[in-house]
Specification:
Layout: H1 16-30, H2 36-52, H3 57-81, E1 88-92, E2 95-98, H4 99-121, H5 128-137, H6 143-172, H7 180-208, H8 227-250
Antiparallel strand pairs: 1-2
Helix pairs in contact: 1-4, 1-8, 2-4, 2-8, 3-4, 5-6, 6-7
Length: 259
């Protein structure tokens, strides 16, 4: 049986710690100001970077659509309940749509999009094991914490399968014939009990195999950090620097601390 593998990109093989650092640099730089100029500038540069990194267009559009929807919902909330300033276009009870709320909603939409998009797309081909290797070897985080988190992430994928099997078993016994709400509540409790038991068993097994012995911990796979990783982080700094410089030069810089 053949398996379909994702098309390789220039992000393939890049240390996940560098991707995490690049996403963090962009997020910290853009969260300092609420203005549409810095956010839109960063967004354009990010799209160029993602195209240079050869992120598949299908993946780019699919995940961008999901992020856009989340950003739009946030912008709608700001539009209806944001700062009232300038001309009021519509008012109803607590809802006020004004020039100030419209401007703030646009800036918020672009900023959420500019922050979330690289955070999602930079990890498009990153495996949890690779991220754990990087956190343990590059950032020197405690192996007990890293491997425990990795094991937890691995088990998350089993929740859906357990939910289906619990449903099949309860229907076979005639427990879930009526009452969807009651059935869902009982099945959710059974899933919680099953997850706790599996987690306890996994923790005992890991302790028995020495996963808690940090001084003697070795790593099966090396996690190199070289020029590609440094270039990615430098690109993130360039994006933030150009976005802030453009915003300041056009007079749209709006530092959050001064609001």
């Amino acid at each position: 049986m053949s398996t379909v593998t994702a098309a390789p990109t220039r992000l393939t093989g890049v240390n996940p710690v560098a991707k995490l650092a690049a996403a963090l640099v962009i997020a910290v730089g853009l969260v300092l100001s609420i203005d549409w100029v810095s956010a839109s500038t960063a967004l354009i540069l990010e799209m160029i970077l993602l195209l240079v990194l050869r992120v598949p267009l299908r993946t780019l559009f699919t995940r961008a659509a999901m992020v856009t929807l989340a950003a739009a919902l946030t912008a709608v909330t700001i539009l209806l309940y944001g700062e009232s300033r300038g001309t009021v276009h519509w008012h109803f009870l607590l809802i006020t749509v004004s020039d100030g709320s419209i401007t703030l909603a646009v800036a918020t939409f672009l900023r959420v999009l500019a922050i979330a998009l690289p955070s999602v797309l930079l990890f498009v081909d990153t495996e949890p094991t690779e991220l754990a290797d990087g956190l343990g070897q590059v950032l020197r985080l405690p192996a007990r914490f890293v491997l425990g988190a990795l094991a937890g992430v691995r088990l998350v994928g089993l929740l859906g399968q357990d939910w289906r099997y619990l449903g099949y078993a309860r229907r076979a016994r005639g427990v879930a014939d009526q009452g969807r709400v009651k059935r869902a509540a009982g099945q959710a409790f059974a899933l919680l009990v099953s997850a706790i038991r599996r987690g306890s068993t996994l923790a005992t097994a890991m302790e028995a195999r020495g996963f808690g012995a940090h001084p003697t911990r070795t790593w099966a796979r090396p996690s190199p950090f070289g020029r590609r990783e440094v270039a990615l982080i430098c690109a993130a700094f360039v994006i933030v620097a150009v976005a802030i410089a453009t915003s300041v030069a056009t007079g749209h810089w709006n530092l959050i601390a001064t609001r």
